[in-house]
Amino acid sequence: xxxxxxxxxxxxxxxxxxxxxxxxxxxxxxxxxxxxxxxxxxxxxxxxxxxxxxxxxxxxxxxxxxxxxxxxxxxxxxxxxxxxxxxxxxxxxxxxxxxxxxxxxxxxxxxxxxxxxxxxxxxxxxxxxxxxxx
Length: 134
Hints:
Layout: E1 2-3, E2 10-11, H1 19-41, H2 65-90, H3 97-104
C-alpha cells in the first residue's frame, strides 16, 4: 500500500505471475480495507475510486530480460576485471633478468633462450655447437 503525497488517497499495488490473481488480491484488499477502516478510524466517507481490472494490453512488470542481461554482463565484466587485477597484483613470478637482479640483488650469470620447435636439431650434433643460418 502506498499513500499518495498531499492527499487522502491510498494506492494498492500487487505483483503476481498471474494478472487475474493480482487483480483479485488488490480488489479484496481494498474491500476489506473499506470495511475495516470505518470501525478503526470512525470515518464513513471511504470509497474505492477505481477497482483493479485485467486488460488485454497488460505487460509483465518483471522480469525484464534485456535489463537483466545488461546488468549481468556489466557485473560479470567488473568481477572479471577485479579478479584479473587481484591475480596480477598477487603474482610474484620473476619474469626477466632485471626482476632477478632487483629482487634477489645478485647478478644473472646466464639465461636459457627459447627454442622453436620448427628448428631441426640432428641427434648427433650438440646443441651448443649448432650452426646459425643467415
